[in-house]
Amino acid sequence: MRVADVKKTINQNKINPRRATWLLVGAGAAMVAGRLVERGLDSGWRAWKGEDPPEKPWRSDESWPTALAWTALSAAAVATVELVARRSAHLGLRQLTGKRAPAGL
Prior knowledge:
Elements: H1 3-13, H2 17-49, H3 64-97
Helix pairs in contact: 2-3
């Protein structure tokens, strides 16, 4: 292997610190927001139905309407909040740094 090929390989494997920062902030914000919305969903379900939410809705001891309602509600809420968190993190970092997110994120 030529020296030029080795240098090219090394440069391709380096982690771009700016890209890593964007990934960490976006993922961290989404994880925190997702966990908070899960807790909120649990509390809301208890207030609405007066019972704990289905822990494992795929089990046969849950009715189909209950399992489908919990799955649809939780999936939509978590996905929406994670999207908002990631976009907000990107906008916040852009305002702080004055730079756009790296390509591909």
